[in-house]
């Protein structure tokens, strides 16, 4: 890690307002040196490897913006970006890809992971500076919006956060009801009959759905509302949602269409485990089976698209998945 472009002092001796802190990640030292020159107006921290950058960010390094290459040894920029999205303090930090990969499939992968911009090398210094300036201008607004943003993790476990507030679940089935309603939020309410058939293998007693809805309301508190309207129930108030399961499906569809290694690895980085482990019911089981099937297709595609040592690693990863 190297740091440059520290903020100085005003001519009259008064302290200057601290300049924005940028982080640049690229395995080519020449590219990092060029970035230090192009972005001289900012405080800049550079890393020549993604693993070192990820470790520092996990330990609390909090830049105002990140510029990242894609093709790097040991971990792609796509994989790094996917892991950074799991760190709450970094979710509103603007992320710009700066890479030689100029295929549409690669660009879609990067933007699908939530990138703010995707610039290709060789680049015009003025273009990069303009992109950085515009993204920094939006950063404060994005952080305000993030306070009301829902972050839903359902692959490999269950975690639901509104801003920095984590919801607590007394009932796993109440969480399944929440996700079922969330999946249908744009379609309006879900009929009571459908809720009963999707959440229970056998028809529940008359008051079980009412009791479950009450538990869900308790878990949500004032963050969102459950509205019963005649024979339907619907979720309101969860307007800005980032949910890993639909994000994985979208990224997987693009990756399987393009068959690009970077796109495949980017999609696999989102899949952190089985959907809602331990959850019961037809909908949870059907969704779990479907997403496992998508992950399997990606792992098989990774084998087909790789060569040499990379193919051997992909084959071992596929075997491990099949043995689980």
Order of secondary-structure elements:
EEHEHEHEHEHEEEHEHHEEEHHHH
Strand content: 15-25%
* Top-tier CATH class of the largest domain: Alpha Beta
Using the coordinates shown, work out and report the CATH topology of the largest domain. Answer: Rossmann fold
- The percentage helix is 40-55%
- Helix/strand-derived category reads alpha/beta
In the CATH hierarchy, what is the architecture of the largest domain at level 2?
A: 3-Layer(aba) Sandwich
Distance between the termini: 38 Å
How many helical stretches?
12
Report Rg: 23 Å
In spatial order, strands of the major sheet run: 1-3-2-4-5-6
> What is the number of E strands?
13
Describe the secondary structure blueprint for this structure.
Blueprint: E1 2-4, E2 21-25, H1 29-38, E3 43-47, H2 50-58, E4 65-68, H3 77-84, E5 95-99, H4 104-112, E6 117-120, H5 125-146, E7 150-153, E8 159-162, E9 165-166, H6 172-183, E10 190-191, H7 192-199, H8 208-220, E11 225-229, E12 232-236, E13 241-243, H9 244-258, H10 261-270, H11 282-305, H12 308-323
Characteristic terms for this protein:
about 15% strand, 13 strands, 4-stranded mixed sheet, Rossmann fold, alpha/beta, Arc Repressor Mutant, subunit A, 3 domains, globular, 6-stranded mixed sheet, about 325 residues, 12 helices
